[in-house]
Each structure stands twice: as C-alpha cells, then as structure tokens.
Prior knowledge:
Blueprint lengths: L3 E4 L2 H8 L9 E5 L12 E4 L2 E6 L5 E4 L2 E4 L4 E5 L4 E4 L10 E5 L1 H4 L3 H5 L14 E2 L2 H19 L6 H26 L1 H19 L3 H5 L4 H7 L4 H12 L3 H19 L4 H7 L5 H12 L3 H7 L1
Parallel strand pairs: 1-3
Antiparallel strand pairs: 2-9, 3-8, 4-7, 4-9, 5-6, 5-8, 7-10
Helix pairs in contact: 4-5, 8-9, 10-13, 11-12
Amino acid sequence: MSKIYSIKSISEAHKLLGLNKPTYPLISVCKHTSNMNLNVKDIKVSFDMYIISLKSNLKGSINYGRNSYDFEEGTLLFMAPGQVMSVTENPVADLKGWTLFIHPDLIQKSELGEKINQYSFFDYNANEALHISDKEKESLTEIVQKIQSELNQNIDKHSQNIILHNLESILKYSERFYDRQFLTRTNHNKDFVSKFEKYLRTYFNSKDLVLNGIPTVTQCGEALNMSGHYLSDMLKNETGNTAKEHIHIKLIDKAKSKLLNSDISVKLLAYDLGFESPQYFSKLFKTKTNMSPSKFRNLN
C-alpha cells in the first residue's frame, strides 16, 4: 500500500510545491509558475485544508477518491480537508492557473465556518469538477487577486474579514456556475435520473433491502459512478428532490402498498423496509403522510 503524506499546514504545502514560505499561515494564493515542483507522480497526499484550484489547459491527470480526471481544459477543482489526492503523471505547469490553500482555522469562528458544509461541491469527485468559461475565470481570478493584494500588505484587524468576504464570494459564484453547468447538461443528467430510478426500483424489489438496509446516498452515487453529493445536487436541479428525498419517497410508496395489500404488522414492515427501528419508520411515515402507518391502513 502506498504511503499517504499528510500535509498539515500551508507552509508544508508550499514546501511540497517548492514555493517560498507563505506570507500568512491560514490562507495562501499560489499563482502557478514554471518553477513549481510538479515532480509528484505516484505520490498520495492528504491535505488538512480546503483547496480551490483553477486549472487552465493543464496537461496531466489527477485523481482523488476512486476517479481520475484529465485536465485538458479550464476547470475549477474543490477539495475538503482529509481527501487523498494523487497524480498519475507529472503535470506541466499551467501559468494561467492558481490555487487557494485555506486552513480550517481561518474560518472556524466565522459565519463561513458554519456555512461551508453547505457548499457540497467540496465533496464532489474529481471528474465532477466545475468547467468554467473565460469570462467566469476572469471573475474568479479578480477576486483571488483581491485576496492576494490583501495578503501582500500589512495584516491589520480588518484583513481577515475582507479575506473571508472575498472567499465567500468565490464560493457563491462557484455555486452559481455549478447551477449553470447542471442546466447545460440537463439532457445528459436526465439519463442519470432514469438510471437512479431504475437502481432504486431494482434495489427495493430485491432482497438487498432486508439484508443490507436502506441504501445510502453515497451507495447510490457509487452505483452510478459519481459522488453522493453530486448525485443529490443533480437530482435537486432536475427533479426538485434530493437523493435522500427520492429514497424516502420510494420507501413510503412501498410501505403504503404493503399496508394496503397485506396484514403485515407495522413492526415487521419496518424491518422488511430496512429500518433498524420501527419507531423511526413510523416517525418518517407520519412526517411524509401526516398520519401513522396504522391510521393510513384503517382509512383505506
């Protein structure tokens, strides 16, 4: 098994890439240069920080999770702390790109620290990176330059708030651009919606439901070769419901059918549907239908 190198600080990240020491320990703007150390083939690295990286015409491939992505066009890649990254071939420096290293301590006590988990694209797979236009690149790069400018002057009591404001702007724009990407790929995505529905039908009509329990969003994503977060966001854009909501809809529909067409007890029905607790099943059923399973059965 290959050793995984853990990068715990921005200084260590700079050292790995052969860059000068960062001017600020909690955030760094790394402009890609020809002097960067990109001799990192077959090395697995885990960064204890958030990373946002613009790859414009980068030659080479990178992977994290189970997927590989070939950066042949402009893309924006997001990584959360703890994700493992490796490079399958030494890339060529991309002089128009940049990388933001953001230590969690920067946002820990801020409003962004409470909201950053809402930006689910940090947990997308590499092959679900954001493709952006030249105009979108310019918009994001302008904000990054503002962060760089702030870091290049003396840090004062206003610096962190200004940096956080610009960082949140990057995330909000990225969220908008991802929504645009979902829309432009709607025909492609509808194929995955159909595949997801087929996967749920097959799973719910097999013994897997009883033997293995209710399928998780991550499990559904893996079945379609994508991250659970990407699947859920794609479904939300296409259908108005998240992956978890789709799973619940299938559970309730199956429960209704069983309640109307059999004498199975509510307790046994809960176990047959993969619930570990009959109480949780009854609570979910009441949340979705405004009545208990027993009341639903008696009304019909």
